[in-house]
Structures are given as C-alpha cells and as structure tokens.
Amino acid sequence: MYDNPIEEARRQAQICNACRYCEGYCAVFPAMHAGRFFSDGDLTQLANLCHNCQNCHYACQYTAPHEFALNLPGVLAEVRQESWEETAFPAPLGRAFHHNGTLIAGVAVLAMALLFWAARHLSSGGTGFYAVMAHGAMVAIFLPAFLLPLAAMGVGLRRYWRRVGGGPVTLADLRAAFGSAATMRNLAGGHGDGCNFEEEDVFSQRRRVMHQLVMYGFLLCFAATATGTILHYGFGIEAPYRLLSLPKLFGVIGGLMLCAGTLGMMHLKAKAAPDLQAPEVRGGEFGFIALLFTVSASGLALYALGGTSALEVLLALHLGAVLAFFLLMPYSKMAHGFYRLAALVRDAQRKR
Amino acid sequence: MTTQDDRYDIVVLGGGNAALCAAITAAEDGAKVLILEAAPKSYRGGNSRHTRNFRCMHEAPMSVLVESYGEEEYLADLLRVTGGRTDEGLARMVIRQSQECLPWMEAHGVRFQPSLSGTLSLARTNAFFMGGGKSLVNAYYRTAEALGVEVLYDAPVRHVALEGQRVTRVEYEHAGKLHTLRPRAVVVASGGFQANIDWLTEAWGPPARNFLIRGTPYNRGTVLKDLLDQGVTSVGDPTQCHAVAIDGRAPKYDGGIVTRLDCVPFSIVVNKNGERFYDEGEDVWPKRYAIWGRLVAAQPDQVGYAIIDSRALPLFMPSVFPPIEAATLDELARKMELPEEKLLATVAAFNAACGDTSSFHPTELDGVATTGLTPPKTNWARPIAEPPFYGYSLRTGVTFTYLGLKVDETARCSTETGRIENLWAAGETMAGSILGQGYLAGYGMTIGTVFGRIAGREAARHVR
C-alpha cells in the first residue's frame, strides 16, 4: 500500500500529534504524544501497540479524500508487519510465510503427511493413540518442533527489544502488559463500547470477544497438553483420558472456544476494510487462522471419533496441523502475540 | 428536470451537530425527517467534524468534567471574550440547558474523554468528545438513521421559498437533478458562509482572497443568503469573522485543528519585509490566539513569519508541518524568502532589547520584557540566539462568520412582519443571535446542541 511505510507513518504520526483527538481510544496515542519527533524505533513500537481497532480511522477528520490522507491503522499495520519480518529469525522465513497462506497450507499438508507416515511406521504396542503412534515417537517429533521455533521467537523478540530501546523488565511491567492482554483493553475503545472494525463506524465487542475465545481457547488447549504431560510422566496415567479429567476438560472446552473464535475472526476479517490492515499479508493471516481452526476442529473430531476406524487419519491430521502450527509460530500471525506483549511491556516502562 | 416529494414532515438543511440534534429530537417526537447535507458522505458534518469539545455548566463533577462550573462564571467567561456583545437572555438559556445536554448526548451515542494533553486548562469547563467531532457526528448519524431519519448526501439546497410568513417549498439538487420538497416545517442548520470566498471578499475586501478557511469547504452560505434576500431577519456584522493565525502552508480549506501554531508567544513575528508589527508576548496564547488572524491580515500579502530558536521549540504544541530549520539566521531568511539583512537587523535589535531572562516562565505572564523596542515584547522576551533556528509562515485562517439568522428563544426565525410559521434555525447559522464577536472554546457546540434540540422539538410540535 505504501512504498515506504516507516516514512509514511512518520508523516501521519506528526499530524496525529498535532491533533490528539483520539487520545482516549488506546495506548498508541498517549505513547505517541509523549514525543515530538519519531525515530524508526518509536514508530515500530507504536505499530506494535496498535491493535488495529480502527476507531481512530473512522473518527479522523483527515482521512482521504482529505489531502492529508491519514490511514493510521493501515500504515501502522504495514510498519508492524515489516518489523516482524525484519526481526524474525531467520528473516527469509518470516517474509515468506507472513505473505502466503498457500505456503502455510503446504507446510500443514507436509506435516500431516509426515505424521501419517510416522503413524504407519512408528506404531508400537501401546493403547489408544499410542497404538497408532508410539509415545516416544510423538515426543521425538514434537519436542524439537516446539523448542526450536520458541528459540527463534526469542531471537526475534530480542531484536525487537533492541530496536525499540527497551530496558530491564520489572515485575510491574509484566503485570501491566499481561493485564492489558488478558482483557484486551486496547480493543475496548477507551469508552468500553469496543471497536470499529467489521461495520465501519459501528462500535462492537465482537472482535474483542472472538479474539479472547481464540486466545483463551488456545491457552486451554495448551493447558490440556501440559496437564496430559504431567499425568503421563508424573503419575504414569496415559491417554486417552476420561471426560472428567483435566486434559479432556481443558481440551474440549478450549477446542470449542478455538473453533468458534477462529471462525468468528475469519468472518470479521472478511467483512473489514482491507486497506485499513496490511493488504499484502491478508492471505497469510487467513491461512494462519484456518490452520488454527484445523488444529481445534481436528482435535475435537479426534475426541468424538477416536474410537472408530478414522482414528489413524484423524490423528495424522490433528498432529500434523499442530506440528505445522508450532513450526510456523515465529513466521505467522502467531508471532503477533509475542510482539504485542513486548510492546505492552515497553509501554509500561514508558509510563513508569 | 424537477421532481417532487411530499413524504417528509420536516426537512433539516445541513448535516452537522445542530442539524443532527434537531433531526433526532424531531424524529423522537414522531416526525418524519429528511436531512439534506450538501457534502458527500465522507465530508458530512460541516464544521462539527473539526470540533473537539462542548462547554458545559455543571454544579458538581459530571461525566468527564471535574469540580463545578456555574452559570455566573460561565457567563462571565463569555462576556469577557465577546466584549459585551452578547444577548444575555439567550446566552443564559444556552448555559443553563448545557447541563442537561451532556447526558442527552451520551444517551444518543456521544462518548467523552478527559481533556487532551496540552489542554489541561479546559478540564473543568469543557467535555472532550472521544475521537473528536467527527466521531460525534458519526454517532448522531447512526442514532438518527435508527430513528428512521433519512439522509441525502451531495444534496445542496438551492432555494427555500418564503411566501408571506410560511416556507412553502425547498428546492435542492441531487444527482444532477433539481428536486422540490413541500415539508410542513424546515430547520435550517447549514452554518455560516466562510467558505464562500467571494462573499468574504465583499465583506473584507481583496485581502480575503488570501485567507485560508479552517473548516469545511461546504459552508458556502447559500441558504443563508437566500433567506436574507427574502427578508428573513438577520443578526451579526457581515464584516466579522473569527480568524486566527495558522500555518501558512495549510490547505486552502479544511486544515482544521492541526494547522494552528502556538509558537507566537515564544517567537518574534515579522512581515514579509522582515519587520515586527505587534507585541508577541501580550498575553498567554489562548487569550491572544484570535487576534493574530487580524494582525496578519493587515500585513502585506496577509502573511507573517514567526522566528524562534531551538530553546523555544519544546515549549508549544507540535503542529502539522515541521518548521523550516537552519543553522544560521541568514540561512533561515533565505529559506523563508525574507530580506536577509532586514531580518538580521530585526533580530539583532530585538536581542539587544532583551534584558534579564532569569525569571522566564513559559506558562505564565513572566514580565520578561524588552526595553526601548517598538513594538515591545512584554512577556517571554528571550533572545533568539541558540541555533538551530526555526521559522513558520503564518496566514489568516477563518473559523466562522458571525452574520446569521436572528432567532428567539424557541429558535424561530422571523421577518419584519413577525415570526415565520414554520422556519427554525440552529447552530452556526444563528449563533450571531447570541454572540456578536469573539469566541469561547466549546461554546459553538453548546449553542448547536441546545438550539438544535429546541428547533427539533418546536418543529415536531408544529407538524403534530
């Protein structure tokens, strides 16, 4: 959309800083109004604070056709996207996957095929899932597939931190940042009516609710895996678990939330104006949400149909989707969670 | 080609705050309302899109407003800025009703925020719209449409036919055709005429051609002129307009808030000949904001140049365009196309006239003044000496005009022979009925809201 997003963001921020009408909407504006000139690092930080609620855009007296042609959500989305691609490790992967939903689908299919192969060749004498694939084989595949992307994410975050001039992190910074994320305060619109997104200047909580369904759904699913691991290694209780067990409760509830949330997010995103987001990465973003939906839907299907002959196929589908999801974490929209938190921590530091 | 449509009880002319308050109120009272907005949807809302707050009387903390702001203090503030040219009866009525307007505004979708950074002086008196005036306008359009109010954009009114003491038809243009409406009541809320440069030039003379218009290009005064030509009683001085000094690089229309320049008190201001012409440090800036439009208008080519040094830069709100920057004053003069020697001499004379600056204080009248200089600078007189140097060009920016329709306390318009049966006015187009000169921040929105609601209520009562 813009040839040089960072320069364009600087021009727009200067106009915003002379107006300040949007100060109450979110964390971006108080952070912006604290300064007079904007370094590249400042703009990167503002871009990562922006949650793309678009309230400022619909309230703006200077949007096109006005000659100032402000589109702050749009330009910040592009700066944000650039910052993720530039700080990603290794960077070429960031650039490739952010833009490309087809690549995401490709990785998912490959991962599913790998798991299918593994299911055929690495089965053991276990029961339930482990009759299809040995527990040791799963661990051998997933442990590195989880830890390596996490390490890459760490490198990206460190680069981000240096770029925005972050200082030593205190407990209070973390508390502020996690508190903000837990309630998605920046999607509440300042007045609590929510955000403009899917229907021009109408305020709604829909995006906030959908996002939280995805976020908490995901965390519950993660908790299901974590409690399963503890039960497995700590207590020698192996999957499959009963419905009234922690892994199942977390997994089923989380899976349902994740399914509903991802469908909702896709629906809202399809309705929203593309030019107020980063249009070039729409494919990648839809691809990522679709992958997350596949993870949750296949997980639920596995629960419902695990006792049937579909087990092997469903297990390959589900674990393949999970594998693709983990591998792509630093190079897909999933990265936004980490960068967003970093930006909130940095903002807490600015305020203290 | 002409088409005719008689579906509407009330037609509201204009699409800003006052028009919307009238339309919403009338629709809630059961009337079938049509809004004719001259602007396209993207520019709807008139000057309301550029506003940011609402001055509100309150006995105790209310919404985002702190402490209290009583009727007498409010009125005193108003009388001070208007130099007494105020209709006290109407002014008091507006002030009193402002208090009940705020909850009404919230109930109709408007959201407020605490006063913005850089506007702390208004935290007690003015409630700021979250997102500014355009978000208020958006909320009102949503509310109005939910109440069944119909809105036509790109629909400039060409003629409001007055026959005796009655408006009989409204003619407007839309999609290349002329249309006629015969509503039972009409509310005119279509602002002033400041975007009509020819009319401004008639009132002000040729310098008006160099003025910049801070607000919407759609306030051309077509309806106002049409009604005045038919003998509707006017109020206000046609040669009066609210004018401030804004960044000379601002667009001809619609630059809005960001083009204001707050640097004057910390600067020297010269004309195109490099000469100073007025005391830049006469008073704190908000109080002197409005006289600089006229001062600059009186200079050759209606342009001024504010010169500051690096120490002054952090002392005022940033503005839309970065200043012109130079390492030396002669370089700055060249960049700003000012006569080099003359500017250097002016700065040297000013610097030499500065005395002890140890009590310099940017936010109060510090009495740090020049001695033996004409014109003097009576506060914040600190030498312009620390490079880099910065310059801004200044031009006259017109906010609104005062000539309008005279109304009574029911917002009704009249002619020499008496009240007009079915014509009401609200907002900027009748604000001259209350204040004849000067301006108090946020009072325009208060007049618009109070009179918009009155006009809507009265028009609805008429058609019932």
TrEMBL record, chain A:
<feature type="transmembrane region" description="Helical">
    <location>
        <begin position="213"/>
        <end position="235"/>
    </location>
</feature>
<feature type="transmembrane region" description="Helical">
    <location>
        <begin position="103"/>
        <end position="122"/>
    </location>
</feature>
<dbReference type="InterPro" id="IPR036197">
    <property type="entry name" value="NarG-like_sf"/>
</dbReference>
<keyword id="KW-0812">Transmembrane</keyword>
<keyword id="KW-1133">Transmembrane helix</keyword>
<feature type="transmembrane region" description="Helical">
    <location>
        <begin position="128"/>
        <end position="153"/>
    </location>
</feature>
<feature type="transmembrane region" description="Helical">
    <location>
        <begin position="311"/>
        <end position="331"/>
    </location>
</feature>
<feature type="transmembrane region" description="Helical">
    <location>
        <begin position="286"/>
        <end position="305"/>
    </location>
</feature>
<protein>
    <submittedName>
        <fullName>Tricarballylate utilization 4Fe-4S protein TcuB</fullName>
    </submittedName>
</protein>
<feature type="transmembrane region" description="Helical">
    <location>
        <begin position="247"/>
        <end position="266"/>
    </location>
</feature>
<dbReference type="InterPro" id="IPR012830">
    <property type="entry name" value="Citrate_utilization_prot_B"/>
</dbReference>
<keyword id="KW-0472">Membrane</keyword>
Automatic annotation (TrEMBL), chain B:
<dbReference type="InterPro" id="IPR036188">
    <property type="entry name" value="FAD/NAD-bd_sf"/>
</dbReference>
<protein>
    <submittedName>
        <fullName>FAD-dependent tricarballylate dehydrogenase TcuA</fullName>
    </submittedName>
</protein>
<dbReference type="InterPro" id="IPR050315">
    <property type="entry name" value="FAD-oxidoreductase_2"/>
</dbReference>
<dbReference type="Pfam" id="PF00890">
    <property type="entry name" value="FAD_binding_2"/>
</dbReference>
<keyword id="KW-0285">Flavoprotein</keyword>
<feature type="domain" description="FAD-dependent oxidoreductase 2 FAD-binding">
    <location>
        <begin position="9"/>
        <end position="436"/>
    </location>
</feature>
<dbReference type="InterPro" id="IPR027477">
    <property type="entry name" value="Succ_DH/fumarate_Rdtase_cat_sf"/>
</dbReference>
<keyword id="KW-0560">Oxidoreductase</keyword>
<dbReference type="GO" id="GO:0016491">
    <property type="term" value="F:oxidoreductase activity"/>
</dbReference>
<dbReference type="InterPro" id="IPR012831">
    <property type="entry name" value="CobZ"/>
</dbReference>
<dbReference type="InterPro" id="IPR003953">
    <property type="entry name" value="FAD-dep_OxRdtase_2_FAD-bd"/>
</dbReference>
<keyword id="KW-0274">FAD</keyword>
